[in-house]
Design a protein that fits this description.
The chain is built from five helices and three strands, in the order H-E-H-H-H-E-E-H. By secondary structure, the chain is mainly α. The protein has a single domain, classed as Protein Binding, DinI Protein, Chain A, CATH 3.30.910. The protein is elongated and about 85 Å long.
Length: about 170
């Protein structure tokens, strides 16, 4: 509640200052912009290939684990305690390997995603900066970030078309 009050107070102050000093506000949805950029398609293709390669290995591990589990369930009554303990240990080890693989996969996927999308975000930031400076904007709000709860269409300009033009996107 306190954060909301601080946010609204800040917005009120900025609005009053904007009216007094003639600030120029703009807004853009960077998620929408990034989704129409050609570089995004190639990044998505690379991520899909990464997912496919790792999914195959993951599925192979799961199939092997399921076979071991089925064998254990079917034969545990026939096995001696020593064999049963050994098979349980093998199952736990395989389960641990799968969990380790999942964790490493998530970390590597996040790194790969960051590596592919950082240049795209930097290109967007550069284009927004150019448009903001060329059009004398004081503030540009990113609607994708979820910060602005309200913006006035008459006092805030949607700069998406200007940034698309800057990036050569139709």
């Amino acid at each position: 509640m306190r954060k909301l009050l601080v946010f609204w107070t800040l917005i009120s102050i900025i609005t009053m200052q904007a009216q007094a000093q003639n600030f120029k506000f703009g807004h853009i949805n960077t998620t929408e912009l990034i989704s129409v950029m050609p570089q995004t398609d190639s990044a998505k293709v690379k991520l899909e290939a990464y997912i496919k390669d790792n999914r195959e290995l993951y599925e192979a591990l799961r199939v092997e684990y399921n076979k071991m589990l089925e064998e254990f369930s079917t034969n545990q009554e026939k096995w001696s305690d020593v064999v049963k303990e050994s098979k349980q240990s093998d199952l736990l080890e395989k389960q641990s390997r799968i969990a380790d693989f999942e964790q490493k996969y998530q970390e590597k996927y996040a790194q790969e995603q960051e590596k592919l999308f950082t240049p795209i975000r930097e290109k967007v930031k550069t284009a927004i900066d150019k448009v903001a400076k060329a059009n004398s904007f004081t503030y540009i709000f990113d609607l994708a970030a979820g910060n602005p709860i309200y913006f006035s269409e008459t006092q805030s300009v949607d700069i998406l078309p200007l940034v698309k033009k800057e990036l050569g996107i139709k």
